[in-house]
Amino acid sequence: MRHLLSAGDLSRDEATLVLDTARELAQVSSRSVKKLPTLRGRTVVNLFYEDSTRTRISFEAAAKRMSADVINFSAKGSSVSKGESLKDTALTLQAMGADGVVIRHSASGAARRLAGWVDGAVLNAGDGTHEHPTQALLDAYTMRERMGRLEGLRVAIVGDIRHSRVARSNVLLLHTLGAEVTLVAPPTLLPVSVGTWPCAVSYDLDEVLPKSDVVMMLRVQAERMRAAFFPTAREYSRRYGLDRDRFARLHDDAIVMHPGPMIRGMEISAEVADSPRSTITEQVANGVSVRMAVLYLLLGGSESAIGNGN
């Protein structure tokens, strides 16, 4: 791998290598000193044109735990607010010698464009409604840790598929790793291209739940909507929300996931979100390990992944 732009770019072996490396690196979190010398002397720039909490902090924590130098760049308060283009910002980063650039941008395809302008590795932290590959990797890692496998897992992804870069990346990656994915949403919240995706589609959540090993709930992204995609929030929740009654339809070993941020009471009830079978906080913790693995594999540290690190 030279960049990580799309979950679809990963082969089965490459994706498995990331997950295996993440498991090895996860032990760092249990140490008294949570730091490795692996990427000492490397510079990672977090280039965020959209607001973010979990992803930005996770990438920053991952880079710092690997001893990389981290520069956080926010579009707000930078020359971007004065009209500077992505290309000119990229050339500035190139001149500063960035070894890796983590980018989140509102435009689909921005990460791939950036990769053509800089010599360093580019990591897509979310581009428009297109993809979010490290989220898919941390989701797959969480599933494998909880369920013991990915091959043959039946995964339901529920909600606003149309505007979700997480859904697209998960479908591509989970298909590569041998899981069976079903998308569940009202027809208005499915993308036009969904027929080309390697997954099944259903409009009936109650029918899909008993057959699912993993249920991933998605937030309705109202900020990306320019039209009415469902009658009311109450009606959406009635048909596609995961509440206590629907949760009871799952088999006893099934787990519930959510990439965050959650709208409690709309797509998921507080009772379900906080249950022992919910992996929501685990996903956040696992995200650091997975992003450490991706940074290590892309930036080619001079040390082994774990090294001595004492």
Description of the molecule:
The protein has 310 residues and is an alpha/beta fold. It folds into two domains: 7-131 and 284-299, Rossmann fold, CATH 3.40.50; 133-279, Aspartate/ornithine carbamoyltransferase (Rossmann fold), CATH 3.40.50.1370. It has eleven helices and nine strands. It has helices spanning 12-26, 54-65, 86-95, 110-115, 133-147, 165-176, 205-208, 233-240, 244-247, 270-273, 280-299, and strands at residues 43-48, 69-74, 100-105, 121-127, 154-158, 180-184, 200-202, 214-217, 255-257. It has a five-stranded parallel sheet, with helices on one face. Helix 1 (12-26) crosses helix 11. The longest helix is centred in the last third of the chain and has 20 residues, at 280-299. The protein starts with 11 loop residues before the first helix and ends in an 11-residue tail after the last helix. The model has no long low-confidence stretch (mean pLDDT 90).
Identify low-pLDDT runs. Answer: none
Largest sheet descriptor: 5 strands, parallel
CATH topology of the largest domain: Rossmann fold
Q: Structural class, please?
A: alpha/beta
Give the SSE string: HEHEHEHEHEHEEHEHHEHH
Question: Residue-averaged pLDDT, rounded?
Answer: 90
CATH architecture field of the largest domain: 3-Layer(aba) Sandwich
Rg from alpha-carbon coordinates: 19 Å
What is the fourth-level CATH superfamily of the largest domain?
Answer: Aspartate/ornithine carbamoyltransferase
Strand order of the largest sheet: 7-6-5-8-9
Proportion of strand residues = 5-15%
> What is the straight-line distance between the termini?
29 Å
Catalytic activity: carbamoyl phosphate + L-aspartate = N-carbamoyl-L-aspartate + phosphate + H(+)
Family: Belongs to the aspartate/ornithine carbamoyltransferase superfamily. ATCase family.
Pfam families: OTCace, OTCace_N
Domain Aspartate/ornithine carbamoyltransferase Asp/Orn-binding: 151-298
